[in-house]
Specification:
The complex is a heterodimer of chains A (114) and B (111). Chain A has 114 residues and is mainly β. Chain A is built from no helices and eleven strands. In chain A, a hairpin with a 2-residue loop joins strand 7 and strand 8. The N and C termini of chain A lie far apart (33 Å). By secondary structure, chain B is mainly β. In chain B, the strands form two sheets. In chain B, strands 2, 4, 5, 9, 10 and 11 form a six-stranded mixed sheet that branches. In chain B, strands 1-3-8-7-6 form a five-stranded antiparallel sheet, with no helix packed on it. In chain B, strand 6 and strand 7 form a beta hairpin. Chain B starts with a strand and ends with a strand. Classes of the chains: A mainly beta (114), B mainly beta (111). Chains A and B meet through strand 4, strand 5 and strand 9 of A and strand 5 and strand 9 of B.
């Protein structure tokens, strides 16, 4: 079974709709991250969380919100989707402690906003 | 703004050649550096990490770090068509545990 899972894997929605992307992990990691990836722009950080009570904005948080329901679950919401939020979204986790911790990525959610 | 920069490519090399991928970063406080490989439509996966100046080798891959010049590179020896992918450089932002990713270099290995 995959250590980091994302649902849904693909989603097509319309402008103005509320969308939730979910991430679950079985790695036991405290740190969780949400990124979006656009062609030519690399991975950009939306939100990150170091535990259920610690939520931080990344570089492109406008138009997004998150919820850390448990250590293992981190959800990303688009309250009112717009076409320029069409992108590939990745959830990632890493261990706490030390500076040399790799990130483990989920399989991604491809979101299209019409 | 702390940045990580990569040449977007594509970098084309013939099969069996050495591919050289470069990354520069602006945060002098950064201590560790990661290279991820990403196939089209897939998630990034870790190839190498390095935190000491000099070279680190793992199979066909060698990471090179020069903190004074603020660059890190990845060499792929005996390149194979299966190495064709985008390679992302990632640098944890000092003191924050946020990872700053470069835009990636697309590598094409020609059979």
């Amino acid at each position: 079974d995959a250590d980091v899972t994302q649902t849904p894997r693909n989603r097509i929605t319309k402008t103005g709709k509320r969308i939730m992307l979910e991430c679950s992990q079985t790695k036991g990691h405290d740190r969780m991250y949400w990124y979006r990836q656009d062609p030519g722009l690399g991975l950009r950080l939306i939100y990150y969380s170091f535990d259920v009570k610690d939520i931080n904005k990344g570089e492109i948080s406008d138009g997004y919100s998150v919820s850390r329901q448990a250590q293992a679950k981190f959800s990303l919401s688009l309250e009112s989707a717009i076409p320029n939020q069409t992108a590939l979204y990745f959830c990632a986790t890493s261990e706490i402690g030390g500076d040399y911790n790799e990130q483990f990525f989920g399989p991604g959610t491809r979101l299209t906003v019409l | 703004q702390k940045e990580v920069e990569q040449n977007s490519g594509p970098l084309s090399v013939p099969e069996g050649a050495i591919a050289s991928l470069n990354c520069t970063y602006s945060d002098r406080g950064s201590q560790s550096f990661f290279w991820y490989r990403q196939y089209s439509g897939k998630s990034p996966e870790l190839i190498m990490f390095i935190y000491s100046n000099g070279d680190k080798e793992d199979g066909r891959f060698t990471a090179q770090l020069n903190k004074a010049s603020q660059y890190v590179s990845l060499l792929i020896r005996d390149s194979q068509p299966s190495d064709s992918a985008t390679y992302l450089c990632a640098v944890p932002s000092s003191g924050t545990y946020k990872y700053i990713f470069g835009t990636g270099t697309r590598l094409k290995v020609l059979a």
